[in-house]
Design goal:
There is one protein chain. The protein is mostly helical. Helix content is 52%, strand content 0%. The longest helix is centred in the last third of the chain and has 17 residues, at 82-98.
């Protein structure tokens, strides 16, 4: 009898859905390496420009930009160095400022 693939295996297509989204999503055209930059304001400005430029997004520019940033942070998980995580979290606050939204209270 043939062995069926484990649907919970990281090798399954279902286990790589976020990789597929990252590679094939065309909602925003991001600058190369934007999430590796060390300047939170520069990251936020780039995401804002990409979101406002895009005509393929489904939500308003703020939500599209913030969603892309959160998606990257969540996908990186524990592999994201603490220093870069702090920079990306600061970019969230910068993004809120650029769009005139209130800062998140912690």
């Amino acid at each position: 009898m043939a062995q069926q693939p484990n649907p919970h295996s990281p090798q399954s297509a279902a286990g790589r859905w976020s990789q597929k989204v990252t590679e094939t999503s065309n909602a925003l055209d991001l600058d190369a390496g934007v999430f590796t930059w060390q300047d939170p304001r520069r990251i936020a400005m780039s995401l804002k420009a990409s979101a406002e430029r895009s005509r393929r997004r489904k939500a308003d520019p703020f939500r599209s930009a913030m969603s892309m940033l959160c998606f990257y942070i969540n996908r990186a998980g524990r592999k994201l160095p603490a220093e870069q995580r702090a920079c990306l979290d600061a970019a969230k606050d910068e993004l809120r400022t650029l769009f005139g939204r209130p800062r998140h209270r912690r």
